[in-house]
# Entry
Amino acid sequence: MINKQIKCLFGLEVGTQMTNKTRNHELNDAAAVAAHYGEPSVLAREKTMTRLDKYARQFIACAPFMVMATASADGDLDASPKGDAPGFVRIIDDVTLAIPDRPGNRRVDGAYNIVATGRIGMLFMIPGMNETLRVNGRASMTTDPTLLEQLLAQGKLPVAACRVEVDEVFLHCAKALVRSKLWDSDRHIDRTEFPPLGHMISEQIGADDLDGAEAMVQDSLKNKLY
# Structure
């Protein structure tokens, strides 16, 4: 009895109990997930298409922004924002898209992942619209001059292009954006609540020249968008 009291006093017994309780609440396999969430509605289950229909085409043509997700051979994940004028992702045909890769910081995490696994997921967004469009497929990187010419912007070619063969495409409901009120300008923060990007990254990596780093950021935004 004394040993048990001592264990409880120092959290040992409680810790063991909490660990067991935590394990009991884990969803560790598909059966557990299905049992917890239940069956999807007919609309949710049947909405996945394998080709771009008129609504998917219209959505992509109107979207100035999307998030591109990729995975490495080791399973490391990356989600990268991509944006330009509406329709910057070009529709080649009902099953093929082309994404321009404009000048950036040359980390090219997505490109490395694509040449390793050839898998891609995209989430298209249109300002003012709460619904989104999701596209999953197989991707490859190319410098084909004929394709790059079709992705010309501000008189300049992209550095490369990502060609996507569509496997899945479907519309996603508005709940996430309704909850977040993403497009509500009254909810937007004052940018000065955060330091400039160059300052933040300099602090994160232990660099001293905060202003020099921010000058590089601003020069890139002004002179190297395309």
The radius of gyration is 23 Å.
